[in-house]
Amino acid sequence: MTDDLKTRFEKYLEECDKAYLEYEETHGDAGAGYAHVLVESWRNGYAKRPFIDYAKEHTDCSEQELRELVKRFGNDAEWGIEFKPGHIFSCQVPPEEGIVIDSWDLGEVENQYEVSVIAEHLDCEEEEVRALVRQAKQEHNFCIGSIYREDFQTFETYQTTDAVWLAVVPRSWFDDTLSEIREENADA
Hints:
By secondary structure, this protein is α+β, with helices and mostly antiparallel strands. The chain has one domain (3-187). It has helices spanning 3-26, 28-32, 35-43, 48-58, 63-76, 115-122, 126-139, 171-187; strands at residues 82-87, 98-114, 154-170. A 3-stranded antiparallel β-sheet has the order 1-3-2. Helix 5 crosses helix 8. The radius of gyration is 24 Å and the shape is rod-shaped.
């Protein structure tokens, strides 16, 4: 194993880990992956309190309209929400933008690699990749997960992060839904 191969291997892992961490921290699809957690949070009541408090404080809805807002959001929680990236020490948005009703910290991001893919990319043998992984793990150059077999085919790297995903009900959702409710009540 040459120093050049080791350098190319480390650069490859660094670039992949960096790109994957960025995706997990900032890409909307990654944030939307928490929609099912939001639905559970809403059902168990955790997310309702900030929603209700915001509606009371930042809209002019009546008690009946508030109940209807809660009902409609509960039916459409996944669709009335925006997932925004944030940081564990700044989990708020300005009131004119809406309200954060829940958030989830990433904590740790796992990236899985296939030995054969790296070997092909680096134009080397799979056993050379395995040796590089073992060496990187031993030297603590990367946070590499447990390796249970000598001839492992995959391995994982782990990165810690203070990033969070914020579940934000936009102010526009409140305004638009309240207008709909009032129009329906006027027509009734």
